[in-house]
Fold each of these.
Amino acid sequence: MHESRVPPTAGADQLIPGRNCWRIERADKAAVIVDAADYFAAARAAMLTARKRIMLIGWDFDARIRFGDEHEGQPVPIGKFIQWLVERRPGLEVYLLRWDLGLLKTLFRGSTPLTLLRWKLHKRIHFSLDGAHPTGASHHQKIVVIDDCLAFCGGIDMTRNRWDTRAHRDDDPQRVDPTGKPYGPWHDATTALTGPAAAALGALARDRWKCATGEQLAPIEPEGDCWPNELVPAFENIDVAIARTRPDYGDEREVHEIETLYLDLIARARRSIYAESQYFASRKLAEALAARLAEQDGPEIVLINPEQADGWLEQEAMDTARARLHEALRRVGANGRFRIYHPFTAAGAPIYVHAKIMVIDDQVLRVGSSNWNNRSLRLDTECDIVIDASRSADAGEAAATISRLRNGLIAEHLDVEPKAIESTFAETASLIETIDRLAGSGRSLRDYRTPDLAAVEKFLADHEVLDPEGPDEMFEPIARRSLFRRLRKPR
């Protein structure tokens, strides 16, 4: 077993503003919302409490999507719902900001252009495109803020093909796009926060609005309780850290808090790293994992990925990168401590994983918009939130809640009860063994299999990564080639 030559990471056991997060603020209440059926319902209920301002900051937006259920004459499509709401609240203003290049898709989305035109003519609905980023970058944050009182932050965009339930049924009649066409099962996650943490996300949203439009919005003094009645909080009176990625652009200086936080959390893990991500394509994160896998008593690592990336270009780049990184990591001598799994439905359809979640031991929970790829670490605008149980007044209860949330996610993927995960993990002390024992032939998790293994092995042999002197060195030859090269500072 090679001794790791990666130096210890300063501050790895701490959340430090200015290093691996932007701010740490108290959340009066906090919840993790899994899958968009529950998120859309919670967001709709929260918007109904809004009195002064709603901010929607996203990568994409489709005004036609079904946004909750029809109730007391309230429109179902989100575009019509927002206009209906503003017309009934004289003091309410809505600000919607989305990535500018995504506009090309919007132009061909049925009634969406007409909805946007109506909004443009409305004095209290403000719609703008976010082009304040370097060439090739995107605005990727997914944030909704209600009166600076309640905020949602995570990985779910209010756009088509996102709605699904945690059951991920094969033939769910509600899982159709605005044209009535069925789409595949989709797994995603976000968070809900109130208190100073929500106000901080409000400040971040206003900063992004100013960056994109030049308009400075004033903060709002929260009034009353804005928490949706049917949403059960997982935490109360808990510290929440907010971490960002922001590229260097104009007057905005680059921020790499998310990258540093990933590296610190990987260094911090003692027993397990559980993560869900749309991609696994970051050489820098793979290096950090390799260093931990090279340790004789390092943590086990479970990564939940979609079977394939969404889109042919993403498949060509991200899936190829994943195959090479996966095979490289297998050669570290990990003793079976690293596994990638994919979720499938009962009928064998792949469930697309869009969630961005990380759980370190039972101590740290991270949910956000960032993926395990270079774009999220360096190029796109991202926002993640983090809860560290050790910062709670009742650290034991916070840790137990984080453990339950992780077990609930694994149970969802395996289609078993969370108590089955809890009891099996108590017996095995291993996430990997727990998953392997409970995996079934129906809706379940399946092992990642490297496509065209012979070609990947030839690539690794040709680039001299089969016999490295240390876990960090095994990636150096790859790093000198474009697919795995660290992104340079945007100009």
Amino acid sequence: MRIAVDARMYGKKFTGIGRYISELLHNLAAIDQENEYLILLRKDNFDECQINQPNFKKILADFPHYSIAEQTKFLRFLNKLDVDLVHFPHFNAPVFYKKPFVVTIHDLIHTLFPGKKKSRFLHRLFYGLVIRSTVKHSYFTIAVSENTKQDLVKILHADPNKIAVTYEAVDPQYREISDHKIIADLKAKYHIAKPFLLYIGNWRYHKNVQGLVAAFNLIKSRYKIDCQLIVTGEIGKPEQEEAEAAIQNSPYRNDIILPGFVPEEELPLFYSAATIFTFPSFYEGFGLPPLEAMACGTPVVSSNTSSMPEILGDAAVYFDPDDANNMAEQIIKVLQDQNLQKQMRLKGIERVKRYSWKCMAKETLDIYRKIKRQW
């Protein structure tokens, strides 16, 4: 087969989706020497993508995502490509593209938590049109969890027989760092002076940073625990009002540290240094950060919603993200029990082994082959 992969969102800039595309392509290159792949890239990430396999070829497709050009010029570009199949690793496929394609749906966050943009109605209308059309017309839809698959069936009325689940995985760089000097240097750099709870992610409403801050306030006031809270993520972005207000209004603001955007090479250090990793999200399609924390030997206390119990299993302790009291209680439960922390570390490390990018790529290749057999 001749397969085009829409890699316009390739790379670190696009966080989870960029990681997914990168791992898909590099692992396909390692296992598939039969099919020919055209990697469609923008100018900004063309040089970043380096795959030195004779059956992989980079093609410039400099069309902005979520744009009119994506629906018109990119459509004409795709129609001229001599390919058997296109893989769109995100929902944003041209609505009028009618040749065989497969799409990966990571979550339905924009459906369930649309945000507060000024042109919200138009954004929602456009998003709804595109994702429904893409799922309806795809030869096959890939979901990153059973929870996302069920959401597609329940909310978009997708055919469950045309949906396959392929799990994401943790990068090998995430492992426990036990070098005390490196950890000490990190703490000095970010003014960390106490045991700390860690949150890594963005601050959009569905991430529930505001709920985590409320629980932290209770941990400090009711339980008298002398600890800090580290909340990473870019500051000053849209849709952060609730989180920013909760942090600024906290009576324990001095114990809340905001490092801003953390370089990827420092993330294993933060995970390894944390006493507990907290993940208060209302909704996740998959949720990589808690698995990354587990890979670094850090106990995870997570919300009990969406895909989290499915992905984390019995390796995490869970709370109701709508209940700050319950969140605080579960965090305290782990904070005060050294034996429980040890058990969680061991379970977490084992849990991470269930997931493999190579396995994800193999299962995706099987889907390509299944589609070919249907022709």
Amino acid sequence: MDLNPAGPIVTPRDAATLVLVRNASSGVEVFCVERHKKSAFMGGAIVFPGGKLDPKDRDPAWRDLCNAPREAPFAPDEETSRALAIAACRETLEEAAMLPTVGPPLLHEDLLALRAQLASGAESLLSWLARAGTKLDLGSLIPWSRWVTPTAETRRYDTRFFLAIAGETQQGAHDDHETTASFWATPRDLLARFDAGTVELMPPTHRTLSLLAGAAHAEDAALLAQSACKDPICPKLVPQKATQNETETDTLALVLPGDPEHEISTARVPGPSRFVLRGARWLPENAPRPARAG
């Protein structure tokens, strides 16, 4: 993260992320990609496929090339709701070679070929869908949560998280450009790897995985997304004291709604109320107890 608390507050850009889950013998699995280590934003972190809203995602031509999205309480109008779902699908194709469409699922080889065509500029997703006679299945995307980058961050995004159940033929593959690795894994495995220090997870990803870890099946994950609060979660950067080897030092914390130091008193997502910077990692913790008087 590129934090600058003293700098001007940047207006966040609209973005969308798609959390793809599937049933496996080991339990619910989620598809993740690793961002390029040289990326200016979240370099090296394990994330879900997603990215910024493109003005072309609002093209009126999309109305005939997708089914209706689910009602999204985190979008101000129908046009934005559709555009965000389209952005989630488009970015997932670009970063993960998967695409929710109406009808029989597309083959993995066809998705790889389509992604290459789009990357070369030989075709647009709009024109390809029209020529193929298929539509984006926006109705399969379940609105889940809305995370807004802290005001202290120099790059800010207002990211809407969607969840979808992947089909059996959907394998997924990173693009070797923005993302350098990809895999299916259980949320518990990813959280264990984070605890061991072998992967990097940013707070929204960590909290999403923590919630998914309680789902026994992909259908349970879908119910979880449907019932979740859709109000924006904007962490607030605050100073915090840290004690190590009986020495008190200064660190930082990102506090969530419901934390005593956040202006919003009601929690909007279950779990610890803050992420504390320990070394170079943001770890989930509850607010420290107030010191006793005397």
Amino acid sequence: MAAVALLLIGSVGAHADMPALPTQALCAAETAKAERAYGIPSQLLDAISLVESGKYDADSRAVLAWPWTVMAEGEGRYFPTKADAVAEVKKLKARGVKNIDVGCMQVNLMYHGTAFSSLEEAFEPSANVGYAARFLKGLYASTSHWPTAASYYHSQTPGLAANYREKLMKVWNAGGSRNAIASLNPFGGPSEQSNRPRLGPNPLPRPAVSQRVDQAREAWRANRADVQAEARRIADAYRQARMVEYQMRRARMVELRQAQR
């Protein structure tokens, strides 16, 4: 996710006598859990993860969020294991690269790295998704509008936020990754029994935009005063969300100190 964007922590962990979830199902499992825990609309957090770290999965023939994703220097990188992804981030940091997004939700380490105790935790789906859920919830508290909050998750720049929202709404309306995950056999491999609808290989389907949306966009661009007012609202929402993030982080530090006594 972009620098402005991002943000609890529960784990996917399977029952002792059950097989672990396949890697391609980890992000979707955590976004579903976080949506329930934080009262986020169904599949919205999941749709954000698809836009942020979506990768085509041959087994389910769909785009699914990939937990071992790294974005830096304008290039997305998908790794087979968490260890490989962590190693890549260490190499990037050694070269002086600071603006790095990681994990299911592409949390930006330059702005939010202190939210995690280690790089390994930053990639852990439960921690990565949980942090994103908290940040999104804070943005919603500032905007009272989920699509707007989701667009601010990406950027406080009006044009970038609007473009991101357009992409995100298409993915959200397409149903997220739930149907694709349902097609995976929990014991490994695709299920041949499932005939649920699946997303196509493009994570950002582009159906024709309605005339009403086109007209609204042109009117928004034409009215510079509205653009400036929108920019101020975004900046205010971002500052408030950062304050919420700071307060939650401070409360966590207090809890840790108390636990160590």
